[in-house]
């Protein structure tokens, strides 16, 4: 991969239409072997960028979905306690006098290790590691991640160090429900993803939904852009434009008129307050 333009073409082959900013950020992350921190509103193409990168670079994708309370056991590894117990019972049943030390050693081997995404990323590299929605995790987990990104290695007390032969391409995403710490950002290249411009959104719809015409794709994209300007509780992302367009096609519509829009608003808005506000001004929105 020799230029952002070349990467953009490769991503397009995987169905992802990257603008110059995204293509350059991803290209530099690859070239400089640095994690890429992607921040932006929901539905701006952060998660799908990582998926498209793995497809187009033909690297396995390893995904860690962050959530409140996520900890090392869920992210890195756990011991398979029930199987360890079974193994121990079998050992006990099989011999009259159990060598405690040997038994213990046999319990803490790879056989009983449950590798979670971060450990798998270290042992699978080269790969794409997607750490999705890091803003949902807490500070402690961020600090833990920081160390792992720094060293591309972890130490499992019972087994020793596991080091990646080749650092994974790490994509971190955040919907910015809170600020992520500077220390983490400092390790990464940063890119803020905007909603696509009109031409790109039309292109995304046409690329993703076979059979949609230019006219309907444009109408949906224009309406979605206007909705984003209304300061709704949940402004629509590209995912919602895609859903909306698909809903219209499912109803055999080739045009977005007021009546059809009103009936299909549930594909694009997810709060009753938003729907009420928008219904009252659908005429202007679709003009
Ligand atoms: N640039 C793009 N090219 C192709 N599809 C896109 C693009 N941006 C967003 N999408 C599509 O929009 C939807 C939402 O994108 P997603 O990556 O889940 O957003 P985010 O992770 O930022 O919330 C997905 O179906 C994705 O395929
Ligand atoms: Mg996402």
From TrEMBL:
One term of GO molecular function = ATP binding
The lineage is: Bacteria, Bacillati, Actinomycetota, Actinomycetes, Pseudonocardiales
Family matches, as InterPro entries? AAA+_ATPase, ATPase_dyneun-rel_AAA, CbbQ/NirQ/NorQ/GpvN, P-loop_NTPase
Per its record, how is this protein called by name? MoxR-like ATPase
Residue ranges occupied by any AAA+ ATPase domain in the UniProt entry:
31-214
Which CDD domains does the annotation name?
AAA
| Database matches in SUPFAM superfamilies | P-loop containing nucleoside triphosphate hydrolases
């Amino acid at each position: 991969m020799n230029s952002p333009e070349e990467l953009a073409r490769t991503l397009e082959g995987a169905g992802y239409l990257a603008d110059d900013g995204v293509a350059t950020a991803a290209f530099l992350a690859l070239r400089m072997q640095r994690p890429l921190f992607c921040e932006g509103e929901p539905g701006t193409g952060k998660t799908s960028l990582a998926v498209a990168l793995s497809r187009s670079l033909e690297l396995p994708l390893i995904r860690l979905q962050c959530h409140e309370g996520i900890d090392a056991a869920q992210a890195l590894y756990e011991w398979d306690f029930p199987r360890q117990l079974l193994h121990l019972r079998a050992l006990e049943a099989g011999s009259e006098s159990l060598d405690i030390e040997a038994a213990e050693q046999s319990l803490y081997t790879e056989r009983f290790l449950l590798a979670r995404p971060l450990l798998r990323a270290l042992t699978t590299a080269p790969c794409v590691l997607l750490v999705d929605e890091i803003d949902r995790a807490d500070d402690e987990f961020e600090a833990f991640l920081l160390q792992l990104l720094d060293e591309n290695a972890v130490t499992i007390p019972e087994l020793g160090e596991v080091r990646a032969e080749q650092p994974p391409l790490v994509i971190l995403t955040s919907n910015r429900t809170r600020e992520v710490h500077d220390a983490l950002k400092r390790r990464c290249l940063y890119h803020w993803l905007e909603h696509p411009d009109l031409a790109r959104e039309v292109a995304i719809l046409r690329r993703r939904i076979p059979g949609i015409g230019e006219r309907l794709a444009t109408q949906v994209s224009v309406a979605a852009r206007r909705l984003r300007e209304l300061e709704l509780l949940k402004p629509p992302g590209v995912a919602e434009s895609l859903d909306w367009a698909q809903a219209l096609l499912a109803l055999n519509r080739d045009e977005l008129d007021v009546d059809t829009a009103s009936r299909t608003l549930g594909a694009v808005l997810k709060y009753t307050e938003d729907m009420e506000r928008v219904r009252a001004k659908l005429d202007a929105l679709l003009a």
